[in-house]
Structures
1.
Amino acid sequence: MSDNIGINLDREGLEYNFAAPAGGVASGEDGIIKEQDQLLPIANVGRIMKQILPPNAKISKEAKETMQECVSEFISFVTGEASDKCHKEKRKTVNGDDICCALATLGFDNFADHLKRYLHRYREQEGERGSLNRAAGNHEEKEETSNYGSAAVQSTPLKSNGVERRVSALARPF
Amino acid sequence: MRQAGTYSGIVSGGISGKTGPHLLPLARIKKIMKRSGEEVKMISGESPIVFSKACELFIKELTQRSWMVTIKGKTRTLSKEDVASAVMATDLFDFLVNLVSDSGGTHL
């Protein structure tokens, strides 16, 4: 039987969310269904938004969903540019420097500067960890790497305070 | 509100388990990067980490600009339309114009 009669769900691609839980699938009216695994989690996105807003500010759920989509688009946009550059230079792997360059090329100069410093610090830390591990077996370092999973879960409920300290040590607030 | 993704994302997102917890799940970022094009094949371990920070900066920038629109309207709730207005008003966010007008847009 054709679906021409009555309900045109498949045809239009709209109103698809008869089974979608609230916040489960963000579907736009143009019929594109954004699966959750192509978006960053709404809780994380909302948390970052709150950080920059005054305490009495409220954010609508739709605004957070829109922000989720914008961030994914941002990642695709910048990755595309970074990947083009790699391709032209006959390299196969997109690295942190490529992302910084892509950001600068696309007009996000202030991000690019910030991130270059961030990347530099990250690489320094990685270098330090490498040499510490090779040296007398630093217990702290070993704990951090081997218990990564549990450490991450434990610190997350504390509203990422640990992250905040680390992040602000690396770079000035935006 | 779905919170499950927060923990599972961070736990499973340890591409480089050495940098500690990030605000955004690295594995998810990597997935989105890969979807951006056929030619994106190999991604260095540090790339999602750089993006995690970049996305944080991006969210803050767009949120701040959206909030400027919100407070003109004398409300304290940041709405989807405020985000759309901020995008329209900022050249840097031209790449988002279609995205926000598609999902919003009988306001213009």
Note: Chain A touches chain B through 84 residues (CB under 8 Å).
2.
Amino acid sequence: MMMETDRKDGRTPNQPRMLSCSRNILHRAHGSASWSRGETKVLAAVYGPKAGTKKNEDPEKACIEVIWKPKTGQIGKAEKECEMIMKKTIQSICLLTVNPNTTTSVVVQVVNDDGALLPCAINAACAALVDAGIPMKHLAVAICCCVAEEGSVVLDPTKLEEQQMRGFAYLVFPNSALSALPKGSSLVDGEPLEHGIITSVTHGVMSVDEYLRCVGRGRAACAKLSDVLRRSLQKSE
Amino acid sequence: PSITLISAPEASMDSRLANTWRPTVNEKKFIETALASNLRIDDYNRKPIEYRQLTINFGRQLVQPYRERPNEGTMSIFTEFSPMADPSFELGSPGEAAIELGRMIDRGLRGSRAVDMESLCVLAGKLVWAIRIDLHILDNGGNLIDAANVAALAALLTFRRPECSLGGENGQEVVVHPPEVKDPLPLIVHHLPIAVTFGFFSTENTMVLDPTHSEEAVMAGRMTVTVNASGGICAIQKAGGVGVPQREIMRCLRLASQRAGLITKTIKDAVEVFNKERASRKIKRHSTSVAATVSVEDGITSLREGPHRQEKSNSNAEQTSEDSDSDVVTMQEKLSSEDVKPPTLLTDLAEPEEQQTSRVKKTTKDAVKSKKARTRGERRRAPT
């Protein structure tokens, strides 16, 4: 049973692991990024836009293709599910009408999995898309929040913690392009853009209140993450 | 390589619409004429610009040995050309280039007896260690064979397998010790076979060392020589291509053995650095690796002492003292030049094998428990 402030590696429940991000690491790929949170590390590469769309895809728009490569072993259903979730997430942040009838491939390679893998991959893919210059509406930041047995919310679990928790949620929030917005400019239905949820995947059992608490905590953490990401992208351009 | 090529305008979206990359006629002519006027110096890229991830994992299972070699362990190499390495690499079963690469490295390592297989034997005729090398190609800058070879050697040198001992009534019970109890052992590697690739062009017997991707697209023939530092030739592979006079081949062999010495030294230095860093990390935290799925009840039938509880320790524990206000962020911008150093990358990427120690532990324990079921070596158990 986990106490409120007693995580194995000494973090507080609200404290995500150390973040490390590098871009433009591969030479052949049009865009590449590596993203690591603690021991979880993901490498993403983007090729595109390439001519033509796949079958059954709308030729009026750009098509996004995600290839998920696990660290070892065959590609199975879990990997296909991750691909699908990532594809839908990326589709919602990209401007698909700029390059119609093209395909952009995102290849995600899992280097190490120590919990919160899908958010890490989404963050890496987003950074790689920026590196490749794919037109996007805004960026996305992802985080994992889990609910412990007694109902407290813990951020960014390790694999061991993920398995011990009652439930966890992967949340992806939008990250708007401008750091200082005039009030009311990016409101959607009266709420700021950042309050929306692009993607939410949950595992396990949690009550509605707990889920909303997760969302609140996750959004706060993502706001900080957005700042960091924005600063680093601006610094390097 | 010292040639600066006219680079294709990669930045614009339009050029990317061409799905297959062909060197433009201009580029081809440029390379050929430059080579003809001897502009390209035989300068080996000590650090190949492309890198690949290498994992040795899940191969450390106890399996039945091959019938004709009951005293030796087994080693298998799996090559996977990831689509991220090159736009022309397709997902799916490995194509012939991938297979050829795997086979060449396999020949170099196995045929030359670089790794001591007999030390991998646990119970003669019954149980041996099986090593599996997974090569993931991440970035194709040309000359994949040499780079993959270096990666495989580095991984083999930094690999640690759990120690096991025989016990029980008739000496038939095998106990696999977790890394906390006994330090894992390195593999015994006798020598390092280094692959050196040459490219031949159709104009005037031009030969280059370590061809880049562009040169590979233009060259008319290739030869890979696998030598070790003491000058012994482990393998030569020249599959077709333009005919090369004998004295050119001899020249290549001499060049190769010179380069092999330099590369061996580089690998050894890098491995040294990595091992030191790994050892110092072990001292800092008391427990080494983490078990994601090992449960405490998973015991082996025979006697085993030592800490049963697996402590989770974050390798960043000593570095993070931050609170949620200041996220310590290390942003590293690595420029796409030849400065990318494989040792650092190998360190990053080979480090996770620590984690696999415990993951594989579960598999090996299962293998021991179900010894009678004769678990197959290559089948991987998916951790849930």
Note: Chain A touches chain B through 61 residues (CB under 8 Å).
3.
Amino acid sequence: MMHFLLLFSRQGKLRLQKWFTPVTDREKKKVIRDMTAMVLARPARSSNFLQWRDLKIVYKRYASLYFCTGLEDQDNELLALEVLHRYVELLDKYFGNVCELDIIFNFEKAYFILDEFLMGGEILETSKEVVGVSMEAGDILQETMEEYMSKPAY
Amino acid sequence: MPAPIRLRELIRTIRTARTQAEEREMIQKECAAIRSSFREEDNTYRCRNVAKLLYMHMLGYPAHFGQLECLKLIASQKFTDKRIGYLGAMLLLDERQDVHLLMTNCIKNDLNHSTQYVQGLALCTLGCMGSSEMCRDLAGEVEKLLKTSNSYLRKKAALCAVHVIRKVPELMEMFLPATKNLLSEKNHGVLHTSVVLLTEMCERSPDMLAHFRKLVPQLVRILKNLIMSGYSPEHDVSGISDPFLQVRILRLLRILGKSDDDSSEAMNDILAQVATNTETSKNVGNAILYETVLTIMDIKSESGLRVLAINILGRFLLNNDKNIRYVALTSLLKTVQTDHNAVQRHRSTIVDCLKDLDVSIKRRAMELSFALVNGNNIRGMMKELLYFLDSCDPEFKADCASGVFLAAEKYAPSKRWHIDTIMRVLTTAGSYVRDDSVPNLIQLITNSVEMHAYTVQRLYKALLDDISQQPLVQVASWCIGEYGDLLVSGQCEEEEPIQVTEDEVLDVLEGLLVSNLSTPVTRGYSLTAIMKLSTRFSGVNRIKKVVSVYGSSIDVELQQRAVEYNALFKKYDHMRPALLERMPIMEKTATNGPTEIIQTNGETEPSAVEPKHPPPVTQPANQANDLLDLLGGNDVVPVIQTTMPTKPASAGGELLDLLGDLSLTGAPAPAPAPSSQPPFLLDGLSSQPLFNDIAAAAIPPMTAYNKNGLKIDFTFERANPNPNIAVITIHASNSTEADMTDFVFQAAVPKTFQLQLLSPSSNVVPALNQGSVTQVIRVLNPQKLRMRIKLTYTHKGSPVQDLAETAALELHGKQQSI
């Protein structure tokens, strides 16, 4: 299973953090610090895999964002790259040519999409369409409320 | 009270802050507003405020005061509230806070909600951060949802169940009935999560594993459909249909097929199919191949399939993509123990990976290279590894140096090579070697007696070049102290001897004492070395001066030593030669553990005023000692059946050519006097020759040993062309019911004879006299030969050892029977 999924910018600013194991706040901060330091220090043409403590770290850079995840020993690193890629595709489909700003201003949507794709560190749905349909339905439910309230939800 | 600003407004505002302080100010202001809003129990804008709080939390600011508000949002009826509430719960709460338990009831209600998306939210939250208590309370609900026909809920329930099982393994049984028809689903989401659930159950319980083995055919069928089916746009990734599901199924098959022949056989075909048909141009295909290889290596696959797997890894190694090379090296490292020979074939590629620019790949390649070193390739591999040591990053040097030492110790083809290799490591990576390498090297040097002159010469030359690497300097000063006389007399055989005077040597050692680069430990080594030279060099006055100067050194350790050495010169001069003479060979207990020679700066402690050291033993003290002791004293030369560092350890039990190795005295000792002969097995038989015929080299066979069912017969013949060599063939047979394995025959003869023991035909003596082990002994200068034999073997599981002696064998014709 994946232990965590982090998104951070080239300047080390955190854009999304998903933890699949119970971790204290202090520990979370340490992991984030370590990951950003290690990943940002990697030279351009290196492999996407690292060893950190007893986890395999897989990271991939998309434009200005680094997607970084920690795997257990028996997980498939090459497939993890595909998982990260699939998440980016889902974001791209939802936002239409997604960029970092989309994720900054709509971080809660990024979380919602993630929660339709992964759960408990494992893949929940392998079809892009199904995730898209679930997101649409959820958004419609929200909008219904908005219309009812006749003011924006948040 | 004006409406609180909207989330996106806040984000925009905060991003305009130019300094950290400005940002902090804005955030504090907003937090205060939010806090007062929470106090007023404002239902309308709670959702907005919590969302803003979550954003600020992501920036790193404390947000704990929003925890209860999340719970209130979850309890709300509005979907929007619930969505943000559950998100907040997942981000701000965890099982450490008691507050989270308040969620349980809400989640329970939501699990039974009419809207599936609300149910989904509840399952998601439970499945991500549910504590053990929550899981216990809600497992029943999850189990119910696992049986629903709604695929959206079913897949979420499956992963939620996985989380429950991880938290509370005892609840696993509860989910068993629901798994019955999980695999007959068509929906890929449900299939995938079901496979994950099954995997988790099989990993945790051997009973479950046995129970689910019957699913192997079904899994194979699903996998086959995935591969054979045409293009399915919904699940396609670069031409491969649902790679995520494929990999997960392969992983489950791996677990099911491990140590089970039937299951492994059932999946052989599909594995071969996947291995050969998968597209390798994109990462996706390689991910599937990687998982397939891991599965093939773990189950009881047939050898053809295993070879296919290793070849795939070999192809991976040549791939341009660094990730794939990394993954190949990692997998090869896992398989190198079990399929050593197959991996050896790719050795040159692996060694090339040492030169890769990527740090992760270099590390893996280094680990794998060390695993591949053996007696045959040691020279070539060591060259590459030393080159790597020269040029690698400092983070690798320590591990590489340790690895080189270990490999050299195990497989060194010759002592000179071993010493050269260690010297090379010390000169190139001297500051990174482990602390215990100095005593280990010293011990190794003392053991290689014939290399002393060569070693000290090389170390001296290295010192002239560079005195900054402390381990090298320490070893060098110790050696110069011990063998300085060899250095000055220019006795080196292995290479051109250098001309060094005593003064020059003392210059170097004194230079170490004063240099800023030397650590206190190094200074201690050099002072002692100088002291030792007082017995080996002629000019003692200079040494006396140095020692007395350091009697007032600030360094307490040096001062103490100097004072004691001074005392040695003054009051105990008669003891000085004895105390400072050559060190004997040191015993080694284990290769890596702490050796007994921890005080191995090789010094004597004059304060202890010990008696004379035992005279140096020039033979390596190993198992030979046993036979030596038993034959009573030094008049017997042992035949050693150990693997010495001078010979490659490729075949176990390889015997030494005694004639080449041990130093026998030139002049043959007089034939043993009758009075000193140890008692024979049967005494007092008349020396009635059975055959008088010398010319016909037919000496009748005799039984040398017959005990506990093991019988050893000797047959004799004379070797052509040298009539002075008698060839004895031993035949070992076993009349018991159990085989005797690990059979080892050793023999010792008096010094007047020379004996050569060739390799045995095997080391298993089959039971019930079904066969015998033969071994040839060649004896030079045979007269009345008496031989002590030692037998070791394993019988019915327990090791047996025995000693015996043959009677005097008169190998030129006459002999006594026993």
Note: The beta strands of chain A are 2-9, 14-19, 49-52, 55-62, 65-71, 118-119, 122-123.
4.
Amino acid sequence: MAEHSGPDSGKHKANHANANSAALLHGRAGAGTGAGGLSGGLSQPAGWQSLLSFTILFLAWLAGFSSRLFAVIRFESIIHEFDPWFNYRSTHHLASHGFYEFLNWFDERAWYPLGRIVGGTVYPGLMVTAGLIHWILNMLNITVHIRDVCVFLAPVFSGLTAISTFLLTRELWNQGAGLLAACFIAIVPGYISRSVAGSFDNEGIAIFALQFTYYLWVKSVKTGSVFWTICCCLSYFYMVSAWGGYVFIINLIPLHVFVLLLMQRYSRRVYIAYSTFYIVGLILSMQIPFVGFQPIRTSEHMAAAGVFALLQAYAFLQYLRDRLTKQEFQTLFFLGVSLAAGIVFLSVIYLTYTGEWPQMRKVKVCLHLTWVISTQITLQQCFSTFHPTAHWLDAGEGGRGRRYAKIHIPIIASVSEHQPTTWVSFFFDLHILVCTFPAGLWFCIKNINDERVFVALYAISAVYFAGVMVRLMLTLTPVVCMLSAIAFSNVFEHYLGDDMKRENPPVEDSSDEDDKRNPGNLYDKAGKVRKHVSEQEKTEEGLGPNIKSIVTMLMLMLLMMFAVHCTWVTSNAYSSPSVVLASYNHDGTRNILDDFREAYYWLRQNTDEHARVMSWWDYGYQIAGMANRTTLVDNNTWNNSHIALVGKAMSSNETAAYEIMRSLDVDYVLIIFGGVIGYSGDDINKFLWMVRIAEGEHPKDIRESDYFTPQGEFRVDKAGSPTLLNCLMYKMSYYRFGEMQLDFRTPPGFDRTRNAEIGNKDIKFKHLEEAFTSEHWLVRIYKVKKLDNRETLDHKPRVTNIVPKQKYLSKKTAKRKRGYIKNKLTLKKGKRPNRKTV
Amino acid sequence: MQSLIGVMLMKFVLGQVKGEEEEENTLEVRETKVKGKSGKFFTVKLPSPLVPGAKIRVSVEMVFTHVLQPYPTHITQAEKQFVVFEGNHYFYSPYPTKTQTTRVKLASRNIESYTKLGNPSRSEDMLEYGPFKDIPPYSQDTLKVHYENNSPFLTITSMTRVIEVSHWGNIAVEETVDLKHTGAVLKGPFSRYDYQRQPDSGISSVKSFKTILPAAAQDVYYRDEIGNISTSHLLILDDSVEMEIRPRFPLFGGWKTHYIIGYNLPSYEYLYNLGDQYALKMRFVDHVFDEQVTDSLTVKIILPEGAKNIHVDSPYEINRAADELHYTYLDTFGRPVIVAHKNNMVEQHIQDVVDPAAEARMKVACITEQVLTLVNKRLGLYRHFDEAVNKYKQSRDISTLNSGKKTLETEHKVLTSEIASLQSKLKTEGSDLCDKVSEIQKLDSQVKELVLKSSVEAERLVAGKLKKDTYIENEKLHSNKRQELVTKIDNILDAL
């Protein structure tokens, strides 16, 4: 520890010499909270400070928890979203069958007839966490249903996220900023969108794990202690078990180390931290069955390995430089470099020759570039939980990759979460924070140190990813909260801190207190900031109290508006469940459209237990979870050709579809139809994706252009293309809809979603039969008939004129009664004596 | 004859005597067997022996389940539902019948066919056979009616009723119901369009039904595995809570559904106590829908942790299963759960007298409790009397002594007789505590003697007939003896 780089410890001393700054620390804590108790804070500073921090963190937890409960209070305590039904189902399985049974679970109810090895294809962290909580509660005989554990898991974890954000920000800046950051992350919509009660998704716990891992990483870089690094690895292990986004960590931390090296900030602390982290973290991450050997095989993990090697080499060179003379060192260095270049060159030739080039290239080309590309792609891939991009990326063999991508991209693009982010959604999700966080970033860069390099990199990469995909807004949110908190805290320091100073002359004991709190304060505790602040103070001596109060008021106004905005967004945008739809009448009473559950429950109760239900993949998890029936495809879209087959069945005509459905053993077909109530997320609106995905695999049978009018429009009315008007999806959606008149202004068969009168009103089925339609026609279920016992002719039997009339008398004599066959071989018959006599 | 109900399973018999004042008395009915005859037979005990030549009017109510068979068994959505009823033209009884009329009341006027024994008269929805004269015992002749019946043939295929008694003053009831439409099975497609647009489409399907909950029911919930069922309405009436239950989907023939309904009740309406003894009085089965049939019912009663001496009374026979333990809310050694089953139940089984469960052997314990208090009171009387004697010694007023004596005598008498009656009660309960109580009585009489003796002595002392020393000596002796006896009594009481 004594070998710590000079400037740091020097600053540290300077820091302690500055008594004012210690007093300021309290001022900041007070400013950050806006709460009272400052007078007491002077007599017992540490006590008051920790009490305040504790209270604020507790309140942040409480606020975060309660603002996530809108959906539960307005509706009920169930899993409100579609995707989490799978997580719930597997957690239920875990809770009722035990951990090993869960790891070995082969789910024969999904992906019929393939099935799915659930234990090996999920990140089990979420289920294990919920299962563990449930188990502990039940051990204590607190009867809580596993459903309630699942529903409230994300809100509870949001509190933990707030605390870990507080810890991380405290490491980066100071306690006041930490408390502000905790308050921000507790209520910021960008995070709430993924962690409301009833959304039981990986992200709910993963953001906590992410923040906590980063906190421990910063801590280990600061201290260089193996203890903190091991803690960091354990946290990383939890993150790996929870979410595919762990790739973000395993790329960001090496990036941090790499940039530190570039900035000449190498130290033993970094060396100890990263070497330990890489090795232990790698081994731990490979314990997750789903991850397996990926960390040493796939390109998105290679950056970490490369940096590890680089760090070792760097450390080795440092070591050599200490031992050797400059001349010796230079020769050795050049020798080593040329040797390495030669090896790389040879291996490239070898790899190109054997055809493994495309994959390996990424490893070899500049580390920096690899990251950006691979991290982005892998994040996309992992976030969409095992989307086929994985294959796209892995498909290193020859030129297959490109073709594969072309086929598989529709399925990724078809998910709305994978669309690029708009500016509106930045503001919507982050509000004022999106404006203030560059300021925080600027403060950080201006007073750079090891851990602030980290947060800067975190911010830059997260901004980039968030711009690529709406979904990745989630990774941006924590860093935005932290940097905004730093910005706000800084501003408050300047405009509130001075008053404090004037009122309270420098206090000696508080600096002692600070010493006591950090015995052996070996690393810099935001020392530069304090210096910076005191410098600022000098220049701002002339600020009048008016300016100060105005600025403070403005800032508080902004924060207030932020809080209002957060609550409003949470209440209106992120708390409406998708399982239940609600509409409000003019008098404010509520109508609940419970069609999804009506139909799923009908399936559950009134179909055979092993019935196979075909539907588009969006509804797979729900059918498995709520209806408990076998599905063909589901939201885990790992098998594109299977999905394409379902898409093909939906977009072919009935006869062709029947062939496919027979071959897939389909008993029921379920579709979503919103034409009656004007629900826009129905299957007809998704239909083009089905066609596209089907076309990707079966370009000969399905062509997207067939479903458009010659003018290139997608229309369901009379002008629509005949292929569309006769395909299975269209027929199932509009079966008997043509007779239905919704109101008097519109003709019968008027589709409210697409505002058109349907083109094909005379729909008849030969192989299907309507089995169930929910009350508002939202869900329609058709039964696939078995093959007829006796094939009925679809045409009349042919009438031939050979049919003898009743009164017909043959004119032929008995002798000529025999008919004759044309060109028959004539046979000469022998004579029969007895006949002749007659 | 209830329209819904029965397969030759006599469910339930209520004999009712109708006297001249049209008073209805329920008669005691017991099942018996008759040699060589199949079927169920019951012995009915009349309130008074029937004198030769005398007349009595008895009405018998029988309820059958699953007797009406849908025919045809499968119908489409547009078709109406027809059922066949098979019964007996004659009153099946071990006695000859002089004259008899059979009336069959049907659910509709639309009758396909019916047996024509004795040229029955038909009016609207009523068929009247007979009167038949002089029918021999055990006569049978199949009565068969095929008619339209669109009433919902709902059956509760299984139901679990959990009653959780909390010691915080709450009783939580939760019923898990499996419901099936046992009418003619739906054939072919279900068309929502027809169902919505044509009023007579799916006429035999069940859209909703009413469940009547107890008036004090609160926090009612109606849900299933996938959450709350939003299609229900609650109507709070004066004497009940009426819940309109709509399953998630309409129930057609052969379709089934499953739901959970639960509510809280305040325990003061159902839980009675005397000291530490508690009795719970609740319905074994409650109303789910009118004319309900329950194929199998399981009732679980969860009592508070630490409940002991559990005893169950029921108005009809139930099958008790082994008791279980239930752990909840930080329990350490679990709450006892009483489990009982019964199959094939109808609405008439909803009886209020169902199940004084809870801490039992209760009567005995209750009596002993009473004995205890009485004995203690009696001992208190003596103390009271002693005080009177002391007063007398000071004031030398004979009237106080006499009045004290009088009150002692009367109250003692009352208490003793009460104890005696309790003792006899204990005897009828067959408890061995009876002997102990009689022992107490014996000891008590000795005590009383002593008390009286001491009072006499005191009298004599006051009158100057006795020397003070001897009196004090005697008094000492007496009090020692008394003390001995009292401790003896106390010991016995403790043993109780």
Note: Confidence is low (pLDDT under 50) at residues 1-42, 357-407, 502-538 of chain A.
